[in-house]
Design a protein that fits this description.
With 374 residues, the protein is an alpha/beta fold. It folds into 3 domains: 16-183, NAD(P)-binding Rossmann-like Domain (Rossmann fold, 3-Layer(aba) Sandwich), CATH 3.40.50.720; 188-289, Orthogonal Bundle (6-phosphogluconate dehydrogenase C-terminal fold); 304-373, 2-Layer Sandwich (Alpha-Beta Plaits). It contains 14 helices and 12 strands. The strands form 2 sheets. An 8-stranded mixed beta sheet has the order 3-2-1-4-5-6-7-8, sandwiched between helices. Helix 4 (83-96) runs parallel beside helix 5 (111-120). The longest helix has 27 residues, at 185-211.
Length: 374
Amino acid sequence: MKNDSIDGNAKSDFKKITIIGVGLIGGSLALAIRQHFPNVQITGVDKQKVLKRALERHAINTPELSVSKAVRNADLVIIATSISSIVKLLPKIAESVNPDAIVTDTGSVKKKIVAMAQKFFRNGNFIGGHPMAGSESKGIEAAHPLLFQNSIYILTPDSKTKRANLKKLANFLRSIEAHVITIDPSVHDSVVSAISHLPQLAAVALMNTVGKKHPHARFYLTLAGGGFRDMTRIASSPFDIWQEILGTNQNEVKKSLDLYINELQKIEKTLGKNPARLSREFQSSRNLRAKIPRSIKGFFSPLFEITVYLEDKPGSLARMTNILAQNSINIKDLELLKVREGHGGTFKLCFENRTIADEAANLLKKEGFDVTAC
């Protein structure tokens, strides 16, 4: 993959940034900012042991245990904690922060946070945020400077938000290679209830449904194939993360659950009775799914794909990516589709446009790779 060098003299609109919560999200933001803007001073607020590790990883310049001290001279404050902590911190930050500073958060539910912020930030300097990126790992150890690259980063301005501040923050996030979109806080919560929160509950329910198929549950699990594994992967998510999210957004989640249950009941009624209607349900879902952006990171524009079969031997993946890198071809996204031990695997490679995808396919074919254009 193409590795663009970072301009050490690049200038940021923000000179002093405070990040409260230097875990996966906060730590990744810090690392991304340090990578693109080495001269920006970053203060981190967290527990002592987290700050020690953040310093060791060069994610922050200054550790601070006091929120009030940390935000006093900052021109950008990012609150990257749990939803309940964000709500509790807002009044304390409002009391101490520079009046001209921009304050944002990374919470995954927005209406409650934005409503609370309106009470304390009357100058329009608070802008809700939600980076649509994450990892199955947690903490500063899992933080990575490329976590937000090509990922959607949502901003949720309200009626008090200053347009100049919104533009300034959006441009800054774009500079660390995130794709920024703006959504009303209420619309955000409705959307994520359907595309994020509902799938989590559906995965939990599906997994438990199979688990209750006694006395032969072990056979169900042993025979579970790729489709079942894909649909239930997020069933492994820890409840302590989801408890707060689901509780905060419960009204929208219940609406989405009601719609989902209604769809399941419609399908149940058609089984063995109305195959034509069931066929229409299948066709409708197929048509809707085709409209989803192809990349798992949620690119705005559809990406162009090829699939490549790689042999199960050391260096196969490195050889493929090196060929493309040597020809300045950037892989926008890469996904392992199928693998069988001892038989190799099929990878999906995504590119910005059809011309680049075709060029990549032709180069790899010349080198003997088994390539299929999608």
